[in-house]
Every structure is written in C-alpha cells, then in structure tokens.
Amino acid sequence: IFMSVWNVHINFFPLSGIVKYFRYHKGKYLLAKNPKSSQENERTSVVIENKNGIKVLYRQIAGTVARRIVFYVREGEEVVQSEESGFIKFGSRVDVFLPLDTDIKVKIGDKVKGSQTVIAEFSE
After folding, report:
1. Cβ neighbours, 10 Å, residue 9
2. What percent of the chain has pLDDT over 70?
C-alpha cells in the first residue's frame, strides 16, 4: 500500500491478536514505490498472531521523504484490528504478507482507506 506525501500516514492493525515479533531495521531511503525498498529501506517488521493461529507480517517502510517511522506497541502486547498501530511521516509504504489461502478483496491500483477498506478475508 503506497502512500504519497498528500495521503494520511496513520497505519492500522490488519487483524486482532498478539504482537509476536517486532523489529526496527535501519536502512536506505529509496523511493517507496521501488521494489527494493521493502528490503533495503528503513522499516519495521511486525508479526501478529490471531486467536486462530493465523499470522500476518506487515512492514512500515520509509520512503525518500519519510524518514521517521513510529510504532505504538511492542512484542507480547494485544492489539485490535483497525486501531492505530503507528505512522510514517510523508511518502511511504506498508507491505502486508498474508497466508496463501487468504481471499484477497483488492487489486493492484485500488485506493484503500485505513481502518475502512477490507483488503482480505481469512478462510478459517
């Protein structure tokens, strides 16, 4: 999910559960649209596990202008879907990695709204 400098940069938890993993990674400041930015830019990596054992990894990725990432919780904390998880200042990106059997509800090019657009549903 790419956010331009004109978008709202608040990020939301993609599901309810427990934060099982959190890491901050120092890095470069490539354009957020660059495929390499997911691995090379400053970023956070977060894994949340829900009550059914489904795990989702998502990354907050800083862009060329965005040079500050804020994440509100740490490992072991319980989180609620659609509540604020943090923000990335200015142009940035969030990658969401879902289980392979997830029913994706959006397609490339769709505009999504934080805490409003359903991007996927789990087959539980």
Report:
1. 21
2. 90
